[in-house]
Request: fold
Amino acid sequence: MQAVSNKLAERLGDAPTVVSADYKPRADGTTMKALAWFGARDVRMVDAPIPDITEPDDVILKVTGTTICGSDLHLYHGEIVQLQQGDILGHEFMGIVDRVGPKVKNIHVGERVVASFQIACGDCSYCKKKLSSMCDRTNTSGLQNAMYGHRDAGFFGYSHFTGGFPGGQAEYVRVPKGNVNLLPIPDSVPDEKALFLSDILPTSYHAVVDVGVKKGDVVGIWGLGPIGQCAARFALIKGASRVIGIDNVPSRLLFAQEKSGIETIDFNQHTDVVKRIQELVPGGLDIAIDCGTFHEPKTMLHKVEKALMLETDVSEIVNEMIMATKKMGSCGIIAAYAGYTNHFNIGALMEKGIRLIGHGQAPVHKYWHDLRAMIETGKIDPTFVVTHRVSLDEFPELYASFDKRVGGVEKVFVETKFSAPPSAGAPTLTRVADWGL
Reply:
């Protein structure tokens, strides 16, 4: 798939942008540790050149915290197109400013900052509305333009389908348009809380806000990974009367019950999820949110069709949401889908008057100031979802274990040589090999 997509992308050519994904190595030839993709289920630690200022509004960070995201597993399995061997992965990271370009006046060397996972230009019509993930001017992918009719913003560490920018699962990272894409972090907020302003907090909050959760709503959440766990918290903050989480991983179901006090459905025990929801909520859900994944089809039909490349994504969760949601209710999709699906229940969508909302990649810049304030005041503490801390060197093992949900893993704080010691109450350093013990 990668060879075909890269060849097609080459034929389509690059779209114009105001930034380059390439960076200039440091003149002294120094290298850093970084996690790179080499094929499906093949990620390796490599020595890569440390980036230098390449464009005048660049910022170079010494990474103090990074992590693995559920959507990174789509890369791990080779399901996102335009991956190339040696691509440095990682889109959630923060750090200390190491160098700044001559045009950067609002960010200073030595400052602690978190990066948005998207690279926004700051000047296009979308950026002016703080819709940073929809930026028109930072993603070169002509293939995405051909598939979707438009392009998202460039993203860090997420294949050449999103611009080919080296990511933050590394000791250093270059942040293009650093004057736009970095948020200063006060000393009162430790890295374990600030890191998640990069993605999972804005993403889960965006899903809840965009789908319109309001006081008294009964909300169903498909997928209890970190996004689903945080979305459940935000739904409760917005006044939901009940939140029901659907998953099949025992540790995640128990985590949601104990940490957030929500109801759960194990779809291994209740294979007819729609029937079970209708038993629990006569009349149906007010709101349904897809925080799941497209790379794990449940039925043999979709497994075969995916294997034969007759579809790239599966419609099972979306169909369940449409069926389980009351007439004139709303369903939102924040899970990362990439292409095409079969057997979508378009009839039920139309006849029930369901509002089906594709949330898009979350516009981090729209929310991260408010979310930073919520962390500072204690309204939300994202460390509830952090279950482990490991070193950068263990990233290959982390990907394999995270993929299999070993050891009750939810969210992992990955430290580098620049990281501060664990803050009070945060997980201490462990080895991935010990999680299953």
